[in-house]
Amino acid sequence: MTAADPRRVVVGTAGHIDHGKTSLVAALTGIDCDRWAEEKRRGITIDLGFAHLTEEVDGEVLQVGFVDVPGHERFVHNALAGLGGIRLMMLVVAADEGVKPQTREHLDICSLLEIPAGLVVLTKADLVEEDLLELAELELAEALEGTPFQGAPILAASSTTGEGIAEVHSALIRIAAGAEHDLARGALPARLPIDRAFQLKGLGLIATGTLERGSIGAGDGLEILPQGCTARVRSIQVHDRERERAVAGERTSVQLVGSGLESVVRGEQAVEPGAFLAGRTLLARCHLLPSAPKPIRGFAPVRFHLLSSERIGKLRPLGTPTFGPETLEPGGTALVEIRLDSPVVAVRGDRFILRRPSPQTTLGGGTILDPDWRRPRREQLESQLRRLDDGDDQALLAWAERAGEGGVELPVLCQRLGVRAEEVDRRLRALADDGALLVAPAGPGHAVRWIAPAAYRRITERAQRVLRSFFERNRMSLGMPKAEAVAAILPKRAAELADVYLAWLSKQRVLAVDGDRVRLPGRGEQLTEAESSLAERIARAFEARGLEPPESGEIRAEVNAQAKVFEGLLRFLTERGRLVRLPSGLFISRAALERLRAELQTTGWESFAVGEFKDRFSLTRKWAIPLLEYLDAQGVTRRAGDRRFLR
Q1: Percentage of the chain with pLDDT > 90?
Q2: What does the DSSP assignment read for 606-625?
Q3: Confidence of residue 464 (pLDDT cuts 50, 70, 90)
Q4: Which uninterrupted H or E stretch holds 499?
Q5: Which of 574, 504, 572 is nearest to 512 (CA)?
Q6: Are 254 and 192 in contact (CB under 8 A)?
Q7: Domain 184-271 - what CATH class?
Q8: pTM of the shown model
Q9: How far lies 216's CA from each of 120, 187, 269, 626, in Å?
Q10: Distance between CA atoms of 333 and 17, rounded to whole angstroms?
Q11: What is the CATH number of domain 543-646?
């Protein structure tokens, strides 16, 4: 790793109002995070503030960004907008006041977000005696018990006198340098949760945030979600310095140009186009804090916080025999369905926080399992939940199952995972090699699709059922029309894969395809001796009448056949080519048509009108027009205005 490729860590402050978070950051970095005049006048932080420092550790460059959050209970929603992307918590507690309500709430939030590292600073150490300082340390150690930060360093300091600041700085740099440096996140699709957005005259939109994954370069195109507008990156700043490219883990400011950017606000995300989706219904694993006022049964109103976004919604626990009753108890964990009033950009694995709408207190939080949840039928719910609560490969199988017979395409899966196509494709092909998925190759009108074996089994069973039913009703038919079979066997999007499914079904001898007909394998003619004799009499009756046979009903009466049997034998003779059904629905013998075609070639005509045709072959208009339409369709003649030309 070189100076050109530094370690990047974002530190977030946490703690009660007026415990010295902003002063501590200023003492460490020399940067005052309070930007607003009201913040300076009142002496409290209202909105997010930002600072940074750069150090060299063992020959490597360490780039540390700070997000300073407000401590007042009324501004926790602002704090949450900045805490989503941090990797190191700096919990700040005033030595003269000790642990306060917002100390505990911020600690709960950082625990629920699974921030991987932390340290605690006892500020205003110059205001207390040594024994009180020791009591404050004991109280803090007790508050950290049972949290991911149990055993974190607790350091005393004073931003006023400078006492202990060097020690805090050293500890912070040591922990930041030891933090896991996830280089792989830089290769993912770009995702910048916007925690500040403002317009500068002549420059356009300035959007800032902690780059959650991927990288953004000058000139890149971005999509603003959930709004849906597009933008181009004109310039980039990282820690007040111009850069050609920002990478995952950096506090990033981008200057964007494009239409529709005037309405961009905090909570939206600037992302790689097509790589993410915005949805209203989510599946999640949720932990309810022990301090929650009561169990959750049925739908409960919540404020939902994910990265910089905040939404109003409702949550309900999902109960099954495996996952228990539809109840989430304080201190408990359950799978939940979250429905939001407006879309949010989320991917599987995102952490979130839940708060009560009123009074606004933190209820709990958890992990997104499905950012585009669609509750299945009750008999499929258990299987879906079990897979989605497992690893990513099982989630891919769950999404393939949910897509049904139509299958699921790669871009949809990439959006739910927030990763690139190459990684998802590799996983899918490994699952297919293990027999857990089927691959429908790309074809006209569709890309490669991934299909659950259970969906193919349903198609197989339906094909057998449909064909058996058809031949029970049409015993004399040679085969079911292909278009009719596809419509009956393949529902909705599955019909787009008709060639793939028919090939699979043919290979497994579920059916056989003969031209434009589908039949059961091994099925031959199904006529009795009496029916064969009757079919021959019908065919000869049509052949004897030439180009103007009587109505079918008249021939049926002539051969004394029952209506259903007669209709079946007409289809039988048509499928085998003995009779032809004209565009008008009239039946005629193929022998008569062959004689007509031969005689046309002897007329010497280059072209002719309908009247000439009628006169030559002694036809009424009722028969002349359907015969000419048939000849046109067969390519024997070509119509041009009122005349037809022999080909």
Answers
A1: 57
A2: SEEEHHHHHHHHT--HHHHH
A3: very high
A4: helix 498-507
A5: 504
A6: yes
A7: mainly beta
A8: 0.81
A9: 33, 11, 13, 67
A10: 30
A11: 1.10.10.10
- Let me know: does 22 contact 34? Beta carbons within 8 Å: yes
Of 420, 417, 363, nearest to 394 (Cα)?
417
DSSP conformation class of 93: E
Q: Which residues contact 237 (CB under 8 A, 6 or more apart)?
A: 243, 252, 253, 254
Distance CA 217, CA 209 (A): 15
Angle, CA 127 vertex, CA 124 and CA 128 arms, to 5° = 105
510-521 pLDDT, tens digit per residue, is 999 988 889 888
Structure tokens at 392: 């990513």
* DSSP helix/strand/coil, 525: coil
User: What's the farthest any 2 CA atoms get from each other in the chain?
Assistant: 124
Question: What is the identity of the amino acid at 543?
Answer: E
- 415, containing H or E segment: helix 410-417
- Quick one: which of 374, 405, 380, 399 has its CA closest to 492? 405
Domain boundaries, the chain: 7-181, 184-271, 278-379, 390-526, 543-646
Could you please state the CATH topology (level 3) that the domain comprising 278-379 is classified under: Elongation Factor Tu (Ef-tu); domain 3 (2.40.30)
Do residues 70 and 35 touch, judged by C-beta distance below 8 A?
no
Is-contact 526 475, C-beta < 8 A?
Answer: yes
Backbone angles phi, psi at 606, to 5 degrees: -95, -40
CA-to-CA distance for 88 and 116, rounded, in angstroms? 6
What is the β-pairing status of strands 7-14 and 215-217? unpaired
CB 264 within 8 A of CB 227: yes
39 pLDDT higher than 80: no
CATH superfamily of 7-181: P-loop containing nucleotide triphosphate hydrolases (3.40.50.300)
Q: Cα–Cα distance between 91 and 108 in angstroms, integer?
A: 11
Residue 451 CA to residue 435 CA, distance in Å, equals 11
For 569-618, write each residue's pLDDT tens digit. Answer: 888 888 888 899 888 888 999 999 999 999 998 988 999 999 999 999 99
Residues 6+ apart with CB under 8 A from 166: none
The DSSP line for 159-213 is: TTT-TTHHHHHHHHHHHHHHS---GGGGGSPPEEE-SEEEEETTTEEEEEEE--B
CATH dotted code for 390-526:
1.10.10.10
- φ, ψ at 531 (rounded to 5°): -70, -35
CA atoms within 13 A on the CB side of 16: 15
Instruction: Provide the CB-side half-sphere exposure for 258 (13 A, CA).
Output: 22
**Domain pair 7-181 / 278-379, same fold:** no
